[in-house]
């Protein structure tokens, strides 16, 4: 809620490009009293097809770095910022369950965030523990905290 208020106080808006969170960040921001003032929209890009065909993420980038990577997450944020014409854009990729590109360096629970703001961008990687829902909710909280810290 502090994050939403801070965005509203500045007259800014926010949009999302969500892979692993599948729209949950947008939903969480829609539940605040400031949602009508700040929430521009979002896109769920869970499958690679959506990343490539709708958001125009180059196939070569996904092949080189995997769909769940800081490099792909950054381009998701950049493309979504353009599409939504948003002041703040949050992109999230990661692994909430096994079966993706997990490895010893990138275990299940790894979340990548790239956040574009008018006062600078945020690149964040964190490994969360818990169920898929717990991982996504922790990532949502972290995204809100990172935004609040950056813009306050």
Layout: helices, strands, pairs:
Layout: H1 2-9, E1 14-18, H2 24-30, H3 35-38, E2 39-44, H4 48-53, H5 59-65, H6 70-84, E3 88-94, E4 110-116, E5 122-127, H7 132-151
Parallel strand pairs: 1-2, 1-3
Antiparallel strand pairs: 3-4, 4-5
Helix pairs in contact: 1-7
The N- and C-terminal alpha carbons lie at a distance of 13 Å
Report the top-level CATH class. Alpha Beta
Give me the secondary-structure category. Answer: alpha/beta
Spans of at least 5 consecutive residues whose pLDDT stays below 50 are: none
Average pLDDT metric: 97
| Strand portion | 15-25%
Spatial strand sequence of the major β-sheet: 2-1-3-4-5
Short description:
The protein is of the alpha/beta class.
Write structural notes for this entry.
Helix 1 runs parallel beside helix 7. The chain has 152 residues and is α/β, with parallel strands linked by helices. It has one domain: Maf protein (Alpha-Beta Complex), CATH 3.90.950. The protein has helices at residues 2-9, 24-30, 35-38, 48-53, 59-65, 70-84, 132-151, and strands spanning 14-18, 39-44, 88-94, 110-116, 122-127. Strands 2-1-3-4-5 form a five-stranded mixed sheet, with helices on both faces. Strand 4 and strand 5 form a beta hairpin.
């Amino acid at each position: 809620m502090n994050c939403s208020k801070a965005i509203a106080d500045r007259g800014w808006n926010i949009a999302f490009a969500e892979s692993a969170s599948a729209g949950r960040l947008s939903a969480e921001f829609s539940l605040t009293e400031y949602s009508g003032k700040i929430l521009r929209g979002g896109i769920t890009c869970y499958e690679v097809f959506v990343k490539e065909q709708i958001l125009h993420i180059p196939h070569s980038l996904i092949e080189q770095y995997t769909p769940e990577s800081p490099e792909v997450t950054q381009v998701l944020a950049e493309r979504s910022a353009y599409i939504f014409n948003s002041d703040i854009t949050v992109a999230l990729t990661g692994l909430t369950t096994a079966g993706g590109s997990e490895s010893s360096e990138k275990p299940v629970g790894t979340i990548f965030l790239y956040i574009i703001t008018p006062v600078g961008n945020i690149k964040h990687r964190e490994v969360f523990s818990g169920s898929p829902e717990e991982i996504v909710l922790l990532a949502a909280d972290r995204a809100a905290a990172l935004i609040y810290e950056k813009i306050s």
